[in-house]
Amino acid sequence: MKVIPAHSAIPGVLAEVLRKAPLTPEKVSFAWRNAVGAAIARVSAVELGAGSVLLVTVSEPHWGPAIQKSAPMILNRLALLLGPGIVTRIETTASK
Questions:
Q1: Taking CA atoms, which of 5, 56, 68, 87 is between 20 and 30 Å from 74?
Q2: What is the per-residue pLDDT for 19?
Q3: pLDDT value for 17
Q4: What domain range includes position 50?
Q5: Is the per-residue pLDDT at 71 higher than 70?
Q6: Among 69, 70, 60, which residue's Cα sits nearest to residue 93?
């Protein structure tokens, strides 16, 4: 029997369970936190808008370009967690 380390199995199991759960704002926020990490999650809030667009509000304007630069990687991670086609684009705005 081959032993698989927990740290390598957990992401796949998490993605499998998350994809099967109903699409809710909480699920989208959870996927966002897992896709971007704690630092960006602390300075941002997300909402799934029309047309599979993820609306990201950041606390400081400089975070917007950083998120846009990483958008291809973030979109790939979100597709793994939420399923393909759920989020196809990211739009950022700074909170006022």
A1: 5
A2: 79
A3: 75
A4: 6-94
A5: yes
A6: 60
Which of 31, 38, 42 minimizes the C-alpha distance to 90? 31
How far apart CA 72 and CA 36 sit, in angstroms, is 12
36 three-state secondary structure = helix
Nearest to 11 by CA among 30, 34, 33: 34
Q: Dihedral sign, CA of 79, 85, 89, 90? A: negative
pLDDT at 78 over 80: yes
Split into its structural domains, the chain has a count of: 1
- Please check whether residue 57 is in contact with residue 81, taking contact to mean a CB–CB distance below 8 angstroms: no
Which residues 6+ apart lie within 8 Å of 1 measured at CB? none
The answer as to whether 1 is a domain residue is no
